[in-house]
Structures are given as C-alpha cells and as structure tokens.
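Q: Hi! First time asking for a complex rather than a single chain. Here are the components, and I think there are two in total. Is that enough to go on?
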Amino acid sequence: MAHEKPVGGEALWNAIDTLIAVKIELHCHPDVAPEAMILSARRVRSACATIDAAIALLRSLAPPLHIPGGDGTPDAPQDDA
Amino acid sequence: MPLVSASNAILTVLMVEDSLAVRQAMRAAFEGIPGVRVVGEAEDARRAMRLLRELRPDVLTLDVRLKESYGTEVLRELAKDQMPKKPVIMILTNHVNPYVRSAFRDLGADHFLDKATEFGTACGILERLVAERRNGEARHGS
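A: Yes, that's all I need. Here is the structure of the assembled complex.
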C-alpha cells in the first residue's frame, strides 16, 4: 500500500503525536511508590522504538545543515598523532 | 485494528485516534485499568461511526484531527443517531484552544482533555466510571 509522505504542519503534528505516545507509554499511576520499579523490558523497548520514530519525523522536518565556506560536507576530523 | 469481545468487561471503550503509536500506547494504558476493555479502534470518522453502531461502547475517546476527517463529524453523526444509550464522550487532543473546546462541548463532549498533559485525568475518569458501574451492580445484586 502506497503511503504519501506528510508535509509541513501535518508532519509536525504527527511528530508531536509520536512524542505523546511515548509519554503515555511511560505513564505511571500516581499511587505507585517513588522507589517502585514499574517498566517491563517490553515497554522500554516499545518506548525507545517510538522515540526513534519521533526523531526520524523531526529530522525530516529540520532544515539541512550547511557548513559555512564549505561545499556542504563537514571537514574530516584532524589527526592529533 | 483488532476488535475484542466485551465479555467480562465492566466498561467498554472505543478509541478514535489517527496516530497508530498513540492508539497502541493508549490501549496498553487503558487495559491496565481493571474492568476496562478496549473493544475497538478507528482512525477516521467513517470507521468510528460504523464501530459505534456495531459495538455500542460505554466510552468513546475521540481526537479532534482524524485521518482525512475531524472528530466533529463523529459527534454530528452521533447526535443524529437513535442509540438508546449514548457513550460517555472523552475528547483527547493536541488542539486545546478555547474555540475548539467550545465547539466540542456544544456537540455534546462530556470531557475535553489535553492528551499530552491530562492523560492521567483520562485514566482517572475511566477508573471512576468502573467504580460507579461496580457500585451500581452491587446495589442491584443485593
């Protein structure tokens, strides 16, 4: 099934929704004691996957990096040795 | 979008939300509340109305922005419907400005919550509805 890439404001709302999903996944009932361990490995992995999706969405919205005075590619790191 | 049997559930919930990630997270959180069962999910207004008529949930959670549609369309259709018992309508959205809030209140929304900051309130409302249902059943049963 073909998916059209969301643009502009719609993509930004999608990124916000993805971050909200992470927050809901990490939601903790107020009655749980502060020292209690509550997250299963499955929920942590799911939250990480959702954060990855949010990062990818936000990167697609961010302007490309231009290096001043360069050709657009970063300089190679200097070798101190 | 899985549908599950409502048997043994005290409170059945239909979630209408365009974001798959949010639906998955909400389902896990809601089904962690004893007595709550998510019986269906929809990402657009048309499917939402079909599932509302088919499943007759106790609670409808509804986003403002849906896939190729808006939550207002669901509430307008619901107002026309001859359902014997309307669900409790809980709006969970990013779009919390007064204009949108007022429009949804006018269309019959019972609760209007910011899904980023008031999700705990949404869970609290479901817990309260389960408790009220249990108390009602206990009174009728005794």
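A: Residues 60 and 89 of chain B are 5 Å apart (CA to CA). Let me know if you'd like any chain examined more closely.
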